[in-house]
TrEMBL record:
NCBIfam families: PRK08279.1. InterPro entries: AMP-bd_C (IPR025110), AMP-bd_C_sf (IPR045851), AMP-binding_CS (IPR020845), AMP-dep_synth/lig_dom (IPR000873), ANL_N_sf (IPR042099), Hemocyanin/hexamerin (IPR013788). This is Long-chain-acyl-CoA synthetase. Signal peptide: none annotated. PANTHER family: FATTY ACID TRANSPORT PROTEIN 3, ISOFORM A (PTHR43107:SF15), LONG-CHAIN FATTY ACID TRANSPORT PROTEIN (PTHR43107). Residues 483-561 form the AMP-binding enzyme C-terminal domain. One of its GO terms (biological process) is long-chain fatty acid import into cell. The keyword Nucleotide-binding applies. GO terms for molecular function: ATP binding; long-chain fatty acid transmembrane transporter activity; long-chain fatty acid-CoA ligase activity. It comes from Alcanivorax profundi.
């Protein structure tokens, strides 16, 4: 970490003038982010109705050639809500929603929100057993399925617990053309035709702890966990991001290609538009080559990002019109320090609202002050504590209390569980309890274990360091995959890297391995220059032992996070891949391409690492 990353008082003071004009909205947002009133009606349905009242003829949702005003969108959601209520759905029930990014998805979620029904946001990439698990886990009373996913659902429908109430949305503008539903489905666009467009009374019956939707996160067993996201958490994000941090206006348009089964798109981006009755512009899929053309076409002024999205945009060939856009603000998480400043400069972006949060967590950071290379500031109670990676547990003092790290130091991030910052947990109570530390600083307190290593950089600001699961041990030392990736990415010729630990037979720990994508054929790459660079920048134990050369774009999840499990399984085994693999063998100065004979020698213990 550079000393320049430490936040100082003069830096904080230099940001004050630009925040003063936004102070009323920020104070409002801060109050919303700390709300504890369990009797106040709030949440997504209430917010949509308020935005409709403020800006009825303003564009609420824009998709391809479809533009819906707040009045149109709200009325549509009301008709869906009226119909769902007419078939017996009520507060506390769950509806599985399996629709790709398009207005029908958003209208369905708002309709459920207005009824107090929980929308299970099915990951649209799920298939087979994983889809069955996600669906049955939440015991839905109905399912809303887009035409694009009917075939996927039909493959497993016999194993789904729900047998009736399957609804269909055609893959088109269903307000213009309802389409024809397949056998076994009711066409929702047709069913709602004569339903009421008025706001239902139930909209004002959703409160702080009422479930809003389920968001699925990766489970340790390989099967997803359903995280309860309630109206109170949505309200806090609405205040914290929509009013306090992102601060768009009714004339702004925020563009997102992020899947709406993910909280960054569904919560952060959308709430940022709704806060001041601005416009949400959605794309069905992310396209690096078409991204900026779409931004210009829709006159967007902000966009949401996550994971490697910004990297993919940055790797596109430079064009003379790169700065020919109206984007002034971007919001998301995962913008790498190695491209942060260059990305802002290239595309003329003023504000990067990097954030740190999780679907299930109770602590969040936001880059309100617009500093570089930080997840920003947190107003809630948190602690970064010393962590023993070898023992895989926090360090406690002689009194049994955990120990906070000093400024510039990294440790495990914890979020205090209070009335203002509750931990709502998972559908499985046992998993919920495992995520809680008790008696941390005093008898009876409780803190949520984020599982993330963070660095304290002063004035309640932090830097993300690593997920605990993304750390491996080699040569008796702990290696941070994130930090090694940042070093690799800084070498000229490497476009992208993914670092992970792999096992070598009869060897302690895990050896570092990196999948790298080069900007030239691997036969022309400067491996000697890379070795010299790594020896300068990294301790010997952190230098990757193996390099796997990837000719194509890296495989990522729907939210642009690298897929490491498969890479760990294939490791350096040439029989499991077509990639060229290079190894840094003991007593050698540089990498050499691995062949079957050398691999056999490594596996048999001929080479002692």
């Amino acid at each position: 970490m550079s000393s320049a990353d430490i936040i100082t008082l003069p830096q904080i003071l230099s940001k004050v003038p630009e925040l003063v004009s936004n102070l009323p909205a920020m104070i409002k947002g801060s109050k919303m982010a700390k709300i504890t009133d369990t009797k106040k009606p709030l949440g997504l349905g209430v917010a949509i109705e308020e935005a409709t009242s403020k800006n009825p003829n303003g564009a609420a949702v824009i998709y391809q050639d479809t533009e819906l005003t707040y009045k149109q969108f709200n009325a549509w959601a009301n008709r869906i809500a009226d119909y769902l209520a007419s078939i017996g759905l009520k507060k506390g029930d769950t509806v599985a929603v399996n629709v790709e990014n398009r207005p029908e998805l958003l209208a369905s979620v708002v309709a459920c929100a207005k009824l107090g029904v929980c929308a299970a946001l099915i990951n649209t990439s799920q298939r087979g057993k994983v889809l069955i698990h996600s669906f049955n886990l939440v015991k839905p009373k109905a399912a809303i399925v887009g035409a694009e996913l009917v075939e996927t659902v039909e493959e497993v429908r016999g194993e789904l617990d729900l047998k009736d109430n399957f609804f269909f949305f055609a893959d088109q503008d269903t307000l213009e053309n309802p389409g024809e539903a397949p056998a076994g489905y009711k066409n929702l666009a047709t069913e709602i035709k004569d339903c009421s467009s008025e706001n239902p009374a139930s909209s004002r019956q959703t409160f702080l702890r009422d479930p809003l939707f389920y968001i699925y996160t990766s489970g340790t067993t390989g099967l997803p966990k359903a995280v309860v996201f309630n109206h109170g958490r949505w309200e806090k994000a609405y205040g914290g991001f929509g009013f306090s941090a992102v601060r768009l206006t009714k004339d702004d348009r925020i563009y997102t290609t992020l899947p709406f089964y993910h909280a960054t798109g569904m919560v952060i981006c959308w709430a940022s538009a709704i806060a001041h009755a601005g416009s949400l512009v959605i794309a069905r899929k992310f396209s690096a080559s078409g991204f900026w053309d779409d931004i210009r076409r829709h006159n967007c002024t902000a966009f949401g990002y996550v994971g490697e999205l910004c990297r993919y945009l940055h790797e596109q060939p430079e064009k003379p019109n790169d700065r020919d856009n109206q984007i002034h603000t971007i919001v998301g998480n995962g913008l790498r320090p190695s491209i942060w400043k260059d990305f802002k400069q290239r595309f003329g972006i003023e504000r990067v609202i990097e954030l740190y949060a999780s679907s299930e967590g109770n602590v969040a950071f936001t880059n309100v002050f617009n500093f570089d290379n930080t997840v920003g500031f947190s107003p809630v109670s948190y602690a970064i504590v010393k962590y023993d990676k070898e023992r895989d547990e926090p360090v406690r003092d002689k009194n049994g209390n955990m120990i906070k790290v000093g400024k510039g130091e990294s440790g495990l991030m914890l979020g205090e569980i209070t009335d203002k910052t509750p931990f709502d947990g998972y559908t499985d109570p046992e998993k919920t309890e495992k995520s809680i530390f008790r008696d941390v600083f005093k008898k009876g307190d409780a803190w949520f274990n984020t599982g993330d290593m963070m660095r304290d950089i002063g004035f309640r600001h932090a830097q993300f360091v690593d997920r605990l699961g993304d750390t491996f041990r080699w040569k008796g030392e702990n290696v941070s995959t994130t930090e090694v990736e940042q070093i690799l990415d800084g070498f000229d010729g490497i476009q992208e890297s993914v670092v992970y630990g792999v096992e070598i037979p009869n060897t302690n720990g895990r050896a570092g391995m990196a999948q790298v994508r080069l900007n030239c054929p691997h036969g022309e790459f400067d491996f000697k220059g890379l070795c010299a660079y790594l020896k300068r920048e990294l301790p010997a134990y952190a230098i990757p032992v193996f390099l796997r050369i990837n000719e194509q774009a890296m495989e990522t999840t729907g939210t642009f996070k690298h897929q490491k499990n498969k890479l760990k399984e294939q490791k350096y085994d040439l029989s499991q891949q077509d990639n060229a693999v290079y190894a840094l063998l003991p007593k050698e100065d540089c990498y050499q391409q691995l062949d079957a004979e050398t691999q056999k020698g490594i596996d048999s213990g001929e080479y002692r690492f």
